[in-house]
């Protein structure tokens, strides 16, 4: 028979070494003769609780009651009853003295008495937590009595344990028996192991072993008395030693006093059913209502959910902090993960999560899963609070699971989502791999630099300045200068131009002297006459900083230190290492039309600084060039690589706005001309740009030439005067062109009459009226041209 019982319990083993759990330190208290140990699973290391009961022999009454408890715990399942995992009975001890021992393995729990001391709650928070715990125990007892027709027999402080989420659970089922009140011919005691119950916990009918009265009483009579004993021990803070102590009602809250007295009624039939205990005023508090709402969240409509979650962040501050973190927070995370919670719940989740330490932040798996959500409200909430949980995420999780979902916000149609996505990169960038930065992030930032929202363009420049340290050297040289000078400094939005200057200042450590002299200074100096005062101030500050770098480089060269010719010379300069602040939000400032003005046209006339001349730069800086041939100038000096080349920032923005190169500012720093004029025309254009200093000529009125509408000034040298052979005296009308040959014809109105030929036999089409002649003179002009070529050949 003994072997059969062991098989029913869980099978016998050769000893404790075969137990698939490690037994740890015991707790100081446990119900009855059981010992409550901490334990872990040998398979995965998860925490468990292990209850052990030893007897002197196999027929020990305690072991028989223990086997009854194991059987009942395995078969009775309820959320407020201790969860059973495993059990076994082994024979332990030496050869001379072997003790049979029962082991029960359950979910990890802690004795209620020890947990109360650990929490140390007082006042309202203590009453709220006690109310929630008593509510759970009352539900468990009501389930046993009313639904299962079972009697626990010994409900008290020792029979209650607390889970890791601070839920109260009922255990100690050794005395548990069926209620046989319908049995008309009772054969004996209804509770077989009632002798295990302490005298102080027995109601009068049980103390007298009046089983007839017990069977005539309602099923909850004995356990309602036990709940009354639990309430007394809970609020008095002491263990009940004798029944008379229950008459002391001073520790009991007034709102619970009437129900407490009904639970301890001397008449069994008048005792309060534990299922009605929830109607007590004491249980109507914020903590109980909040947890109950969360437990039935699926049954609530969207309006109720939205209202509840909007109040929850403020409500959570008033509840016991330990309860919120260990009970409410897991419930909220589960609701968000499985979609039963609305987007406002995310705010409450993140606020509660901020109260946890980095090591205890256990909602990260839920947050990572939420990044894949298509709900914009949830994505906005995650991005707004990413600074709270971002540092707790590992680099691998950010690079492989978070960033791919975050990056979808760069191209979202919502400006708010694009802006929040942009700002979130400041938190994620330190943990992104170079593959993600160079292969994906920079392409998105390049597009955002030409975003329709001016504040997004500004913040993109600021972000580039802040994350420059996370780029590798090659990427920095390829991206930073082009992003700041070609786009940011030429933006129509003044704060965007100011951000470009500040970003150059903040990243000055990454540029060598050649880049500063040829690419940065020429673009920054233009902003000293910017219409916006902030842009001008930042431009002057940047000029001072970069000129100091160039000056230090000059001094090093003079001292013979040629090894640092390519260095940036920042060893003695203060570098702005702090993060740049974000620009104003794009949702609050769209940029007035009067503020979005292009940079002055003088920026297009900034001359390129020669990188090969070290002496002429200073002497020629105060005067304009007079005799400069632009074709030879471009050939003599090396030209910096164009930012539109494939190895620059342009590689990342190909196909975005290729037709809008003027807006991007590429022409201002690109010396390569798209359409090279003929050498003769280049000389004319050069002559037009330089002042006339010698050989003053008589002033003549401006005329319109045949080939161009631009105003021509007589050159100072004959070899440069390509139009001299065709010049003519001043005509009587401005519509008639000039010629250089004296007219001998009697018809002064027709300069071509002297060489005119007879009209041709075929009628010629009249020329356009733009030549300034009448319809009659057109055929004569065409014939003159034909005869002129023939007569010239005869000569």
UniProtKB/TrEMBL annotation:
<feature type="domain" description="Protein kinase">
    <location>
        <begin position="2"/>
        <end position="283"/>
    </location>
</feature>
<feature type="compositionally biased region" description="Low complexity">
    <location>
        <begin position="690"/>
        <end position="705"/>
    </location>
</feature>
<feature type="region of interest" description="Disordered">
    <location>
        <begin position="690"/>
        <end position="795"/>
    </location>
</feature>
<dbReference type="GO" id="GO:0005524">
    <property type="term" value="F:ATP binding"/>
</dbReference>
<dbReference type="InterPro" id="IPR000719">
    <property type="entry name" value="Prot_kinase_dom"/>
</dbReference>
<keyword id="KW-0677">Repeat</keyword>
<feature type="compositionally biased region" description="Polar residues">
    <location>
        <begin position="599"/>
        <end position="609"/>
    </location>
</feature>
<dbReference type="Pfam" id="PF02985">
    <property type="entry name" value="HEAT"/>
</dbReference>
<feature type="repeat" description="HEAT">
    <location>
        <begin position="520"/>
        <end position="556"/>
    </location>
</feature>
<dbReference type="InterPro" id="IPR011009">
    <property type="entry name" value="Kinase-like_dom_sf"/>
</dbReference>
<dbReference type="InterPro" id="IPR016024">
    <property type="entry name" value="ARM-type_fold"/>
</dbReference>
<dbReference type="InterPro" id="IPR011989">
    <property type="entry name" value="ARM-like"/>
</dbReference>
<feature type="compositionally biased region" description="Basic and acidic residues">
    <location>
        <begin position="654"/>
        <end position="677"/>
    </location>
</feature>
<dbReference type="GO" id="GO:0004672">
    <property type="term" value="F:protein kinase activity"/>
</dbReference>
<feature type="compositionally biased region" description="Low complexity">
    <location>
        <begin position="610"/>
        <end position="622"/>
    </location>
</feature>
<dbReference type="InterPro" id="IPR021133">
    <property type="entry name" value="HEAT_type_2"/>
</dbReference>
<dbReference type="InterPro" id="IPR000357">
    <property type="entry name" value="HEAT"/>
</dbReference>
<protein>
    <recommendedName>
        <fullName>Protein kinase domain-containing protein</fullName>
    </recommendedName>
</protein>
<feature type="region of interest" description="Disordered">
    <location>
        <begin position="596"/>
        <end position="677"/>
    </location>
</feature>
<dbReference type="InterPro" id="IPR051177">
    <property type="entry name" value="CIK-Related_Protein"/>
</dbReference>
